[in-house]
């Protein structure tokens, strides 16, 4: 009979051999956490390698993603579609085993990790989703949703501020199905952490309201097993299990040192490690007996089949709930006739819209969407009343999980964004979260990862420009639109009125392959006139809002709050000036259109002027070197919004003068 230590050693040697073959990587953590991983994956984790997407599986997140070879070894040995050749291809171009775990690349990887701490924050989102779904779909006689979220993390994760934000909130929300295992090995890249990381982690998490299990020997299987059982029995608090481990366990000369952390051990040390572990097999050769002990295919399939049988009986008794569950969680589709209803709503808005701030327009749209989409889950980082993210039917999970569809995140922009990503990855909800656009800086890396993973997170940003006014340049995000637009895979919508705001939300809801940022104004915006064809063209990202009778001498491109001023200026100039006004609420969507459409909108060999209260440089791609831009070249100032708009040239009079100077 193969013992636990030999099964754990299989993880160690696969990890160190793959890193050695790639000549780069991180062998230390996989070797140090191998014993913990063996206990968790073989004795506790409910999963099915033959169907990595089984909905009621336990989620496992490797927050310390530099130790990716531990996860790849676990997936390979357990029976996932990850071959020994894939293990050999670690860190190679086009392989299924990239340097850090990447969602969508490797079967069984739940989220992209690498930027430390975010995996743990994602896991909080997953645990929130599980908590909400179990409250929504479970009945007295059926536990349809019943799974845990497990996280491995290290010192680096807990040094990152995002874990403070996320774990503080997790304790407040009493997420009892969240279990975090802390790899306390005292080592980071620069060496022993005692010189820069001395806080008492158990006390820190105890202050969050977590259940803390300290002083576990991370190489003692019985202690690890007992701690996980204890964590699973504590359902009113998230649990932190603190495991003392030896980084690079098994390496005679490098274990317990920083040299085991982030580089290959070297051929000589690997030979010594094999001798130390009594591992007599050549690289990438695993005995059949070890494979047999590790395989979770049969048990995983049996668990999923049992759940499917439960769901069948559940469907017979609770057909409406089962249909909702199937649509939201399994199919991730919109309700029947939803597109028809939202299109009708948009047309109605065109006939009824008034001059209001687009943040208020967004609230109007949410009041329409909320009753139609029970899976819509909102929130804000302490700015609900400013972002207008809370609609009339919102119920906060902070108060009660029953029927909850909203979360007050507190001042936690980074954690909010990472939690939203985790909820999307888990499935079952369409989460969105709001803050001021200037605070995108705090959340930037989580937004980037949503784009990297190609997941449909929705980020709502209000107070979008110098129109914010008196709060001054700290709150006037003149460079943030360019930052979002230059990030591959994000669609950034900056609507000019209520109708464009509604279309922005529609685009976000139907976008299944990328995140969406909806950029909203604090100040009132002028409602624009459109015909039905123009309304339909908004979804193309850019369209002709106002056209000249003949070929235009000038094409003006604008977005958001500035567009209304442009229209007023052109209308005052009258038909003697041949000017076309193009509204471009989403440049990314416009860029995807056929070349013929783009030329039809922007014209060919015609002068162009872009007007937006953001950084100048973004618009050069549309206006060319010969074109003109009214934009921002520096940070703003503190004064009333209308004063600033005039000061920086975003007023009707200046726009008219610029137009006259061009034609």
Describe the structure.
The chain has about 675 residues and is of the alpha/beta class. Helix content is about 45%, strand content about 15%. The chain has a 6-stranded parallel β-sheet, sandwiched between helices. Helix 23 links the parallel strand 17 and strand 18. Helix 1 packs across helix 3, helix 13 (about 295-315) crosses helix 14 (about 320-330) and helix 23 (about 560-575) packs across helix 28.
The number of helices is 28
Main sheet record: 6 strands, parallel
Tell me the strand order in the biggest sheet. Answer: 10-9-11-12-14-13
* Global structural class: alpha/beta
Oligomer: single chain
Task: Note the beta-strand portion.
Answer: 5-15%
The pLDDT mean sits at 97
Count of strand segments: 20
Q: Termini separation (Å)?
A: 87 Å
The portion of residues assigned to helices is 40-55%
Rg calculated over all Cα atoms: 27 Å
- Low-confidence runs (pLDDT<50, min 5 residues)? none
Q: What spatial form do the alpha-carbon principal axes imply?
A: elongated
List the helices and strands and how they pair.
Layout: H1 4-22, H2 28-32, H3 34-43, E1 59-62, H4 68-78, H5 84-88, H6 118-137, E2 149-154, H7 155-159, H8 161-172, E3 178-184, E4 187-188, E5 191-192, H9 201-208, E6 211-217, H10 221-232, E7 239-244, H11 267-277, H12 288-294, H13 297-317, H14 319-331, H15 338-352, E8 356-357, H16 358-372, E9 376-380, H17 384-387, E10 406-408, H18 413-426, E11 430-436, H19 440-453, E12 458-462, H20 480-485, E13 491-493, H21 498-510, E14 516-519, E15 524-525, H22 532-537, E16 543-546, E17 554-558, H23 560-573, E18 579-583, H24 587-591, H25 595-602, E19 607-615, H26 620-623, E20 628-632, H27 641-647, H28 652-662
Parallel strand pairs: 1-2, 2-3, 3-7, 6-7, 9-10, 9-11, 11-12, 12-14, 13-14, 17-18, 17-19, 19-20
Antiparallel strand pairs: 4-5, 8-15, 16-18
Helix pairs in contact: 1-3, 1-4, 1-11, 3-10, 6-8, 6-18, 8-18, 13-14, 15-21, 16-21, 18-19, 23-28
């Amino acid at each position: 009979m193969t013992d636990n230590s030999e099964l754990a050693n299989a993880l160690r040697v696969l990890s160190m051999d793959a890193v050695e073959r790639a000549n780069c990587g991180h062998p230390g953590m996989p070797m140090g956490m191998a014993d913990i991983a063996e206990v968790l994956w073989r004795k506790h984790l409910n999963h099915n390698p033959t169907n990595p997407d089984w909905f009621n599986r336990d989620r496992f997140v490797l927050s310390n993603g530099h130790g990716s070879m531990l996860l790849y070894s676990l997936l390979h040995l357990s029976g996932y579609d990850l071959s020994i050749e894939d293990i050999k291809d670690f860190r190679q171009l086009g392989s299924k085993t990239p340097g850090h775990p990447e969602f969508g690349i490797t079967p069984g990887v739940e989220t992209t990790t690498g930027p430390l701490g975010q995996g743990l924050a994602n896991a909080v989102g997953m645990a929130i989703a599980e908590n909400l779904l179990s409250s929504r779909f479970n009945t007295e006689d059926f536990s349809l949703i019943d799974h845990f979220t497990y996280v491995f993390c290290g010192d680096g994760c807990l040094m990152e501020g995002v874990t403070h934000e996320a774990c503080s909130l997790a304790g407040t929300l009493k997420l009892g199905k969240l279990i975090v295992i802390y790899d306390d090995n005292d080592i980071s890249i620069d060496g022993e952490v005692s010189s820069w990381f001395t806080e008492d982690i158990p006390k820190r998490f105890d202050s969050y309201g977590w259940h803390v299990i300290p002083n576990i020997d991370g190489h003692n299987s019985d202690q690890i097993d007992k701690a996980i059982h204890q964590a699973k029995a504590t359902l009113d608090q998230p649990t932190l299990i603190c495991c003392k481990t030896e980084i690079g366990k098994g390496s005679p000369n490098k274990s317990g040192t920083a040299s085991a952390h982030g580089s290959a051990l070297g051929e000589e040390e690997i030979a010594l490690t094999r001798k130390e572990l009594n591992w007599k097999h050549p690289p990438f050769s695993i005995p059949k007996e070890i494979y047999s002990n590790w395989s979770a295919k049969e048990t995983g399939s049996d668990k999923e089949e049992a759940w499917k049988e439960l769901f069948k009986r559940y469907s017979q008794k609770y057909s409406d709930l089962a249909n909702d569950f199937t649509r939201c969680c399994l199919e991730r589709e919109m309700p029947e006739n939803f597109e028809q209803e939202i299109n009708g709503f948009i047309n109605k808005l065109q006939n009824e819209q008034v001059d209001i701030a687009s943040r208020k327009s967004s609230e109007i749209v949410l009041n329409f969407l909320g009753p139609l989409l029970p899976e819509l889950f909102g929130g804000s980082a302490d700015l609900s009343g400013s972002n207008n993210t809370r609609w009339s039917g919102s119920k906060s999970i902070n108060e009660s999980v029953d029927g909850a569809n909203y979360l007050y995140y507190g001042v936690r922009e980074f954690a909010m964004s990472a939690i939203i990503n985790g909820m999307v990855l888990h499935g079952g909800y369409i989460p969105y979260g709001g803050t001021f656009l200037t605070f995108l800086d705090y959340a930037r890396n989580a937004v980037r990862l949503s784009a990297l993973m190609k997941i449909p997170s929705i980020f709502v940003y209000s107070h979008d420009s110098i129109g914010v006014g008196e709060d001054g340049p700290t709150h006037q995000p003149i460079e943030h639109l360019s930052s979002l637009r230059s990030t591959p895979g994000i669609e950034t919508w900056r609507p000019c009125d209520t109708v464009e705001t509604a279309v922005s939300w529609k685009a976000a809801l139907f976008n299944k392959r990328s995140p969406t940022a909806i950029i909203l104004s604090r100040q009132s915006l002028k409602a624009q006139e459109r015909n039905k064809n123009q309304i339909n063209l908004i979804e193309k990202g850019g369209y002709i809002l106002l056209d000249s009778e003949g070929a235009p001498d000038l094409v003006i491109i604008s977005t958001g709050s500035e567009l209304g001023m442009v229209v007023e200026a052109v209308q005052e100039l009258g038909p003697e000036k041949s000017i076309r006004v193009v509204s471009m609420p989403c440049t990314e969507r416009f860029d995807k259109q056929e070349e013929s459409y783009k030329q039809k909108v922007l014209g060919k060999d015609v002068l162009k002027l872009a007007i937006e209260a953001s950084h100048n440089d973004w618009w050069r791609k549309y206006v060319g070197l010969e074109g003109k831009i009214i934009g921002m070249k520096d940070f703003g100032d503190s004064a009333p919004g209308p004063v600033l708009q005039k000061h920086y040239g975003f007023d009707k009079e200046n726009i008219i003068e610029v137009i006259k100077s061009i034609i």
